Amino acid sequence: MATESGFDRRALLKGSLTVTAVSALGVLGTTTARAASAKAPAPEIFSTADWGARPATGTIVVENHKPTYIVVHHTVDPGNNEDYTKEHAFQISRDIQNFHMNTRGWIDTGQQFTNSRGGFVTEGRHRSLEILRGGTQHVQGANVGNHNSEVIGIENEGLYSTVDVPKALWDSLVKLVAYIASQYGITPEFIKGHRDFNSTECPGQILYNRLPELRTAVGAALGLAVRQVAEWPLLKPGETGQKVLVAQHLLRDQGVRNVPTDGIFGASTRNAVAELAKAKGITPHLCYGNAHTDETGFLGADIWPLLTQPVQPGAGTEAARAAGVLTDATRTRPQVLSTQTWKELLSEL
Question: Could you give the 3-state DSSP secondary structure of residue 63?
């Protein structure tokens, strides 16, 4: 990913990276959101009443604070439909609500807002639009595991693992995110994808790859400089390479000895990840926007911190071997790899 002007992350990591430098990186990556310098206009957002939502079956929780993150999702279902009408946007809003309430067992739609392929934005969970307009609180949704008190989620209609989003959807997403960021004083580095919190493909590799572009567009709308920050990579079955090899050594360091060190994310590696998640109390993840995708055993943002404990390269353990693979590949020589260092270096591969 690109870095803020004047801050060369690769140059900082190369050579003699210390714990102090790593701590500085951690501060940069978790800066408290600042008030935006410009106000973005409110886009057209159709309310739950407009699209004929069912009443919620429980109390809508309103968090008495601003959200920290804006999170981008894709719905997967109903797929990349070519009906770009407002009527279709209303229908998918009803379909998502029915799925979330009837199958997931939730009180209402999980996300706060939905963005159709035709560029029509609808309110998802009841009261989300009303509370957003106030700019001081936010409605708690059910779209990011273990982080719902911190986030506002936007479901984008479609599946974006291998194809790009339509222009209408992209344009409306930029406007919606800019407005939310403006209302809450959220700076662009706090615009995230679902996979930045949970081990999921969401929002699809293609759309996820465009998040730096989204942050830049929102920053331009708000008159803000944009800093792109490192995120944990997502590893899935079938992938190969040095990141997989690093993960395999780290899994073996956790005592899972039946994992090979061949750099291939096969069945044994997937099973090991699933077993570790279960042992650590992490619920096997199903992307909450859709009905069919089983992502059990994916290794992402909620698994890496369990594996990446501080270690000194060359210490003779499986974790040290993982560190060696990583430092050799990135040509760095840190004295100690902290969790933040692991993240920074893995983002370099």
Answer: strand
Residue 30 amino acid letter: T
What's the whole-number average pLDDT of the chain?
88
CA distance 110 to 141: 5
The reported pTM is: 0.87
E strands present in 82-190: 113-115, 121-123, 138-139, 151-156
Q: Which two tokens stand for residue 8?
A: 């060369």
Cα separations (Å) of 186 from 5, 14, 158, 230, 347?
A: 20, 31, 26, 18, 24
Given a cut of 90, whether residue 26 has pLDDT beyond it is no
Query: What CA–CA distances, in Å, run from 220 to 4, 175, 215, 217, 223?
Result: 14, 11, 9, 5, 5
Residue range 174-233, pLDDT digits in tens: 999 999 999 999 999 999 999 999 999 999 999 999 999 999 999 999 999 999 999 999
- Given the DSSP bridges, would you call strands 121-123 and 69-74 parallel, antiparallel or unpaired? unpaired
**What is the spatial distance between Cα 15 and Cα 332, in angstroms, rounded to a whole number?**
6
Three-state secondary structure readout of 137-164:
CEECCCCCCCCCCCEEEEEECCCCCCCC
Q: Please, are residues 285 and 200 in contact by the beta-carbon 8 Å criterion?
A: yes
> % helix / strand / coil in the chain, to the nearest 5?
40, 10, 50
Question: Which residue in the block uniquely carries the two structure tokens 């920290």?
Answer: 68
In order of 13, 60, 62, 63, the CA distances from 57 in angstroms are: 51, 9, 15, 18
Rg of the chain over Cα atoms, rounded to whole angstroms, equals 21
Q: Which of 165, 264, 151, 265 is nearest to 209 (CA)?
A: 165
Using an 8 Å Cβ cutoff, are 341 and 334 in contact?
yes
- What pairs with residue 311 in β-bridges? 337
| 92 pLDDT above the threshold of 90 | yes
User: Would you say how long the chain is, in residues?
Assistant: 349
Q: Give Cα separations from 78 to 50, 75, 93, 166, 210 (angstroms).
A: 21, 7, 11, 15, 22
* Adjacent-strand bridge partners of 193: 72
Q: Which residues contact 209 (CB under 8 A, 6 or more apart)?
A: none
